[in-house]
Design a protein that fits this description.
201 residues; alpha+beta
Length: 201
């Protein structure tokens, strides 16, 4: 796969790693952004990775109300210092995360939070569908894996496509904010309410 200047720029923005390191990471990862990010982290070159073990105990609880009060969101986003917590870049990021939650209704922050029972249930549904569609067993396994990944992309906030730019995920946006603020940033937890949710007629 051809490694473009745009891909290198995006990885640099997210990690603060050098141009050559970013090119090498993307080459090693065959153009896959997440794998390139992991490669840089393993080599200790990514700013986000360097900062991820630092305690983030400051931050903000961002509140957002949408559609004339029909949807409400509360999200806790943490950083290391009060200085960054008050910065425009950090506040803007927290607000964008709240907008994302309101619009896309994720269920978890990251895939590590998905219970095994939920994944097993989704895999079972995907497998039954593949068999009903007449797919051979070997192909069905790949289909199940693909559908599970799609499910994670839908329900995990960090894996979702950013509502303002479908080419970017919330995780990439997070890494870019880490790079621009110079601090570890964590989306700790969130809650989303929708008017009438859970009511039965």
């Amino acid at each position: 796969m051809e490694i473009t200047t745009e891909m290198i720029k995006e990885l640099r923005a997210a990690t603060n790693a050098g141009v050559l390191d970013c090119r090498k990471a993307l080459t090693e990862a065959n153009g896959d952004f997440q794998k390139a990010l992991d490669w840089l982290r393993e080599k200790g070159m990514a700013t986000a990775a360097k900062r991820s073990d630092r305690t983030a105990s400051n931050g903000v609880v961002e509140l957002y109300s949408h559609g004339g009060g029909r949807v409400g969101v509360m999200v806790e986003v943490n950083c290391e210092t009060d200085f960054v917590a008050r910065s425009e870049a950090f506040r803007a990021f927290a607000h964008e995360v709240a907008l994302q939650i309101a619009a896309q209704a994720p269920q978890y922050v990251s895939e590590t939070e998905i219970p095994e029972s939920v994944l097993a249930h989704e895999a079972e549904i995907a497998k039954k569908r593949a068999i009903e569609e007449g797919k051979p067993e070997a192909v069905a396994v790949r289909i199940v894996e693909g559908r599970l990944n799609k499910f994670k992309d839908e329900v995990c906030l960090l894996r979702q496509s950013y509502i303002r730019d479908e080419e970017t995920t919330i995780e990439k946006l997070l890494h870019q904010t880490v790079a621009s603020t110079g601090e570890n940033i964590v989306i700790r937890r969130f809650a989303r309410w929708e008017l009438g949710e859970g009511l039965t007629e």
